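hi! just following up on the protien thing from before. the input was this:
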Amino acid sequence: MRKAGSALKIIFPKMLHLTCTAHAVHRLAEDVRLVSPTVDKLVSNGKKIFLKSASRVTTFREIAPGIPLPPQPVLTRWGTWIKAAVYYAEHFDSFASVVNTLDAAEAASIAATQQLLREDSVREQLAFIKANLGHLPQGIERLEKREVPLAESLEVFEGIMRVLDMIPNTAGERLRNKCKFVLSRNPDYERIRSIAQVLRGDSPDSSLEGFSPSELSAFKFAPITSVDVERSFSMLKYILDDRRHSFTFENLKMVLVIYCNQ
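and the predicted 3d structure came back as:
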């Protein structure tokens, strides 16, 4: 993507390129998973216990009524692992009371989870994630919204960065370094940030020489994510499917109109 942006700047010299900020936040969440190995094992084994087991689901609902079943995060879906960790932090005692009533001999996931629930490091890491990083999924969801003004999107992203600055110890330092690395690969970030400041009515931090007032105003709804492109992959892959045998060009035009107006 960065190479494509550099190539397009030859044709469009005033184009500013920024890699997807929602994906950048997801990469931070991935680092959280790497520095919390016991929580990762808990999330992995916890979802297996109740998968395709109606009797265990019934037991869960009897012992912990009103509490949802453990989430089943997908690593390719941004922020779902953090959501799962927050779930275990909020419902740790209820989840433990259910799992400890199950027979460890029934499944390896039950035995592994029971062992993990006895470790102090699990409680500590869950508390750390909920206290310092529980905001990441909500931040990703806000960044994924459509037709959001540039100033508002950047405020969401920078709000996430400000929270990361307050995280102590080596884990916080690692996340901050990751964030700095991502931003260092986006040389246009500061100019986009300055444009957002102008659109808010503030004085920009850096010079915007070369941009006319009309051009600056055109950035009002400039996206800082590639979420719409990612969505288009999922929608458009069904148009040229091998199962289609009588898809006319007229129908193609109508389908594209429907997709573009969703």
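The first helix runs from residue 2 to 11.
The mean pLDDT is 86.
cheers
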